[in-house]
């Protein structure tokens, strides 16, 4: 190339095309964390989505999370320092406004999903769990 301006423009174009290839495909999910009656502001964070991403993994990408296994299941105990207390308040989640039908580790997400984690009264633990 004899013209330095054309060379520079082509070089810049190649850089932008190369960088856009590494920038990702723009696929996202939104994770919202609602601390219920606690004096914490709600959080709303987008994170990258990929095929096979679970509701638990998306939460772990945006918050500090503690879990515990029970047999083949994994339950969320704590999010960002707020610990669930069986028979009092625990963490539940919804997908696109609908109550979850699976535990979070087994719940695959789709591009654009909104996952809302809510700290609220425990309605699932039995009194024997104390």
TrEMBL record:
The entry's keywords: Signal
Stored InterPro entries: Transcobalamin-like_C
Any one Pfam family match given in the protein's UniProt record, by short name: DUF4430
Keyword S-adenosyl-L-methionine: no
Signal peptide limits: 1-23
Residue ranges annotated for the Transcobalamin-like C-terminal domain, each copy included: 52-120
Protein name as annotated: Transcobalamin-like C-terminal domain-containing protein
Classification lineage: Bacteria, Pseudomonadati, Bacteroidota, Bacteroidia, Marinilabiliales
